[in-house]
Amino acid sequence: MLLLFFVVATWMPAAHASVFAGFEIGREFSFLGKFCFTWDANYSHVVGEITAHIRTPDDGVKLAIYDDEDAFWAFISTDPSCDCTCKLADEHTKAVFDVPRASDASQTFSLNYTIREHLRPRFWYVALAKCVPGGDSYVPTLQSLTPANFQHYYFTAWYSIHMVQAVTRSEVPVFQEGLTTVYTVSGVLSGLLVLIQLQSKLRLTQESFHPIVQLLTGLVALTFLTNASLGLHFYAFELNGIGAPLPLCLARIFQVINRVGMLLLAMLIAKGWTINAIALHGRTWLTTVMLTYSVLYLSLAVWYLGYVDPASTLYMYDSVPGLAICSLQIIVYAWFVQHLVATRAKEDDIAKRRFFLQVKSHPEGVLSKTFGG
Fold this sequence. Notes:
Strand order of the largest sheet: 1-8-3-6
Helix content: 40-55%
Number of strands: 8
Strand content: 15-25%
Protein name: GPR180/TMEM145 transmembrane domain-containing protein
Number of helices: 11
Keywords: Membrane, Signal, Transmembrane, Transmembrane helix
Shape: elongated
Structural class: alpha+beta
Pfam families: GPR180-TMEM145_TM
Distance between the termini: 32 Å
């Protein structure tokens, strides 16, 4: 579990930033960053701006800009026959700029590129390239990677790329607009639910705090912490174009714990634990599902970190671990319904039978009512 926390904590959405900066050692072609700009149906206003500052000690370095149209980034990133020269061809780029060699630390190439779009929001991409004859076929070895060959085939550059929506000056890409408000409101609502439940607990004198409600209270508390952390992250994102790394790490961890916990809660209710049965049967199955679910989330994080191209806009669940998680959820839901029906059939109390029936028909709503009561 600690390994899961560590991996998920490093699961950072760097591709969703609006500020990209650092030092790049590249060969032929290097992706720097992407951003989703809005659109103007009348094509009368600039919708986005890309500001770039680059310093390189090498000759022949170029800055290339693309959008996500089929003939541009979609083509050069998927066609294996498209070499470096092809990637910089006019028919596949929106713009290409020569980056002059810097003779000293004060010489920096600066660019302000404006964007117009009238069809729909689009991702735009920025990359550096240095095309040399035979560069795609060169295979570096310890013997061949001499300083001369390194300088010939590779390039280095310090870069700072800043992408913003032109009209609103927003640092937020289109698909993440409004998330600060969403998570703030969700955080307030979930926080109120936690307070209501804790207040109900304080009023209890003779009755005990039901174990199922205890678990649900803990999960809603995690939901509150998740929403609060994400709200803080996206608020910082609006200000600096990067966000708040620590709250984002915590939110990712809380999300995984919450999802695993909700799955456990559903299975406990289906088994009737502490509702019409004291003993918990099928512990091996429950443990196996929880471990499998955790391992799949670990695999999803590893896949996202190690195998996804930073330039990709692929949804994280469009992967083998993601599909496995979705498949497991379907299997568990079928198991949940089957055992819920069996548990209800053993119950004689009318109120409890009605409860199980409501859980089967509207599981999320009933859990919310259970929490609120």
